[in-house]
Amino acid sequence: MIGLQTRPTAADRPEAGPDPGPVTVAITGLLAPREFPTAREAGAAAWTILRAQPIGWCQAEAFREFLCDGLAERLDQFLQRASEVNLAFTMDGEPRLVTITRATA
């Protein structure tokens, strides 16, 4: 029998590298813009919301990979080049967007 294996996530181990926090996260139709003190906390909150949605296994797995494992380093790199990170997905036939930006003071 083949079982589903899971890898440790950011919540299971210390984060390496810089954290660009605080950051703001918004998810179209699911989460109004909300500020988090660290990228790790923002990713965990976004993942908690997204994994409960009917977005399909492939989309859920892609979001888990991006939002959990090494998020702080990845966001720091992206936000050095652009003012925001946008991750698109479809749910219930509607386009949605996860937007992550540096929080403004």
Summarize the structure.
With 105 residues, the chain is of the alpha+beta class. The chain is built from three helices and four strands.
Write up what this structure looks like.
The chain is α+β, with helices and mostly antiparallel strands and 105 residues long. It has one domain. The chain is 34% helix and 27% strand. It has three helices and four strands, in the order E-E-H-H-H-E-E. It has a four-stranded antiparallel beta sheet with strand order 2-1-4-3. Helix 1 packs antiparallel against helix 2. The N terminus is likely disordered.
- β-strand number: 4
Could you report the average pLDDT, rounded to the nearest whole number? 80
Strand content: 25-35%
How does the major sheet shape up? 4 strands, antiparallel
SSE topology string? EEHHHEE
Question: Counting H and I runs of at least 4 residues, what is the number of helices?
Answer: 3
Query: Structural class of the helices, strands and pairings?
Result: alpha+beta
| Gross geometry | globular
Which consecutive residue ranges, at least 5 long each, have pLDDT under 50? Answer: 1-15
Number of domains: 1
What portion of residues is helical? Answer: 25-40%
Radius of gyration: 14 Å
Distance between the termini: 53 Å
Strand order of the largest sheet: 2-1-4-3
SSE blueprint and pairings:
Blueprint: E1 23-27, E2 31-36, H1 39-51, H2 57-68, H3 71-81, E3 84-91, E4 94-102
Antiparallel strand pairs: 1-2, 1-4, 3-4
Helix pairs in contact: 1-2
